[in-house]
């Protein structure tokens, strides 16, 4: 059971590390427009348009999102309770954003993130995962920053 709980935590750490990397890539793409790197926007041309309309705020947004993803990954990797809570908060905000985006933009494709986010939140909320967050820390240190 502990092994499975650790595998879940590792998978979520990888997920947030990937999110951090994507934020970094987006920042580079926004900072260096009209270069061969622009070919990356072919993956999601709507994102390029959306970020373009935001101007410099797009970079600020990506820095914040990337920092929160990195903090979540680090906290989870350290088996810190604050990392689990932060990760669950990020997933919840993303889940709500996907649902609102589907309604406001009339784009049901964004709804694919809702069950994924809900499943990840449910996994992180499991008792075995909560215990995993405190088990590896000495008494008095519950993984707080």
Report on this model:
This protein has helices at 2-31, 45-54, 57-77, 81-104, 113-125, 127-135. The chain is an all-alpha fold. The chain has one domain (2-135). The longest helix has 30 residues, at 2-31. Residues 138-145 have low confidence and may be disordered.
Structural shape: globular
What radius of gyration results from the CA coordinates?
17 Å
* Class computed from helices, strands and strand pairing: mainly alpha
Q: Give a quick account of the main beta sheet: strands, pairing sense, barrel closure.
A: none
Structure characteristics:
disordered C terminus; 145 residues; globular; 74% helix; 6 helices
Summary?
This protein has 145 residues and is mainly α. It has helices spanning 2-31, 45-54, 57-77, 81-104, 113-125, 127-135. The chain has one domain (2-135).
Outline the fold blueprint.
Blueprint: H1 2-31, H2 45-54, H3 57-77, H4 81-104, H5 113-125, H6 127-135
């Amino acid at each position: 059971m502990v092994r499975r709980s650790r595998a879940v935590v590792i998978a979520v750490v990888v997920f947030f590390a990937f999110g951090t990397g994507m934020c970094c890539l987006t920042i580079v793409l926004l900072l260096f427009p009209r270069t061969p790197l622009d070919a990356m926007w072919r993956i999601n041309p709507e994102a390029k348009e959306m970020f373009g309309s935001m101007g410099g705020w797009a970079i600020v947004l990506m820095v914040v999102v990337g920092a929160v993803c990195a903090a979540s990954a680090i906290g989870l990797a350290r088996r810190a309770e604050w990392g689990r809570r932060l990760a669950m908060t990020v997933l919840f905000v993303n889940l709500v954003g996907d649902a609102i985006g589907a309604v406001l933009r009339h784009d049901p494709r964004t709804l694919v993130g809702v069950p994924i986010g809900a499943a990840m939140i449910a996994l992180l909320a499991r008792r075995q995962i909560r215990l995993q967050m405190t088990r590896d820390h000495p008494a008095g240190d519950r993984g707080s920053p």
